[in-house]
Write a structure and sequence with these properties.
By secondary structure, this protein is α/β, with parallel strands linked by helices. It folds into two domains: 252 residues, 3-Layer(aba) Sandwich (UDP-N-acetylmuramoyl-L-alanine:D-glutamate ligase); 185 residues, L-fuculose-1-phosphate Aldolase (3-Layer(aba) Sandwich), CATH 3.40.225.10. 38% of the residues lie in helices and 21% in strands. Strands 14-11-10-15-18-17-16 form a seven-stranded mixed β-sheet, sandwiched between helices. Strands 3-2-1-4-5-6 form a six-stranded mixed β-sheet. Strands 7-8-9 form a three-stranded antiparallel β-sheet, with helices on both faces. The mean pLDDT is 95. Bound molecules: adenosine-5'-triphosphate (ATP) and 4-amino-5-hydroxymethyl-2-methylpyrimidine. 4-amino-5-hydroxymethyl-2-methylpyrimidine binds next to β1, β2 and α7. One of its GO terms (biological process) is thiamine biosynthetic process.
Amino acid sequence: MIRKALTIAGSDSGGGAGIEADLKTYSAFGVHGLVAITSVTAQNTQEVRAIHDVDPEVVAKQIEAVADDIGVDAAKTGMLSNAEIIKAVAKTVKKYSFPLVVDPVMIAKSGAPLLREDAMDALIEKIIPLAKVVTPNKPEAEKLSGIRIENLEDARKAAKIIVEELGAESAIVKGGHLGLSEAVDVFYFNGEFKEYRAPFVDGCTHGTGCSFSAAIAANLAKGKELEEAVRIAKEFITMGIYYGAKIGYGHCPVNQNAWIEIPAEKWRVYESLRNAIKELVAIENLPQYVPEVGMNFVYALPRLYARSKDDVAGVKGRIVKFGSAVKPVGGVEFGASDHLARAILTYMNFFPETRSVLNLKYSEELIKKASNLGLRVSFYDRREEPEEIKAQEGGTIPWGIRTAIERINGKPDIIYHLGNWGKEAMILIFGETPQVVLRKLKMLIE
Ligand SMILES: Nc1ncnc2c1ncn2[C@@H]1O[C@H](COP(=O)(O)OP(=O)(O)OP(=O)(O)O)[C@@H](O)[C@H]1O
Ligand SMILES: Cc1ncc(CO)c(N)n1
């Protein structure tokens, strides 16, 4: 059985906020999304160029059409634009009993007004009292409560006013605009305060408010208690901001997909690498190519999600010679590799599609053969490493990979280095996937 959540909101042509953010959020939580569009905005990451409001009667009809047939387990409101739409929405929503999350949208991140000045009273009188939870940011909470908000104590006061004086069941005053070192949201419900905290992240913030309130609605639709729904929404929005893709010239949009895409991609990486390693250990003449320090074989998450070594899967304890065969010491784990993880992360800065690499013992013969086979080969020489990079912990590999790529001004299949005092010479084979790396390896050693 699938749960259904409705969004009553405006459209953002930039796909960052509004209805578009809400639907992506619903989808990320496995909820079927329904829409009642209130207004069409011509918008991008920088500005709102035009606003065209939908006839209030058509807004009401959209709500009725889906509620009467499909059913609504929870709903949210976003941009309501004008007083007539607000009245139509309030009147229609009252006919049903689903929980309502109210995101009192007033101004876009770019500064454009999304609610007419003369519609404020209607919002306060007609919509707020219907809310299971209201989710204002700082300026919105100031407008609703009539008090200035400078700190958490003020945020608590405002949340209390919204509940006790304006009649919402609960309120969460968001701390995205409070200028604190953490993103702290103050929640007032059942006469008690609660705080939801997350580190402030440098990422993409267009559509944060919309996605956050939609995440609460989605989780209410799934039958979660309100406090649990808010907790999950907070985790979801922090992740979405952090993993936002930098598109457009203004505020880039939240990435709602991160929530489902990261676990899905982790599984793909894990499966693919495990299968490749099974094939690798079955190669007969492999032991002679295993370096003294051991071999590893890694596969990174897609570029958007590959930020640190923990986003790169490899073999725990490496792959070692074992009698006349080779053997992975441990299983495939994210964060298991250090050197190769740094190599692939650097390589991906140049060629994001190349996500896998394996290391082999160096031999001049293999390098010659690689060139004869038409593989592109480059190298770095540790003796050329600048002093300031040597002094930097973990700087050698990124410098080396960068140097090797820049040397051929292209995409090497193989990068080798001749080693230095205490450093074993090594060959690295790169490829889009572990299967591509395996193919190149087999060409080379067969
Ligand atoms: N840079 C950030 N890092 C972490 N969390 C953030 C950041 N910015 C906002 N948040 C969180 O995101 C959620 C949405 O809050 P925010 O105050 O940004 O909403 P908003 O101003 O209504 O957004 P919108 O611009 O879409 O209307 C809150 O939980 C807030 O704490
Ligand atoms: C349509 C729409 N709704 C809400 C917001 C909130 O930022 C926006 N920018 N655009």
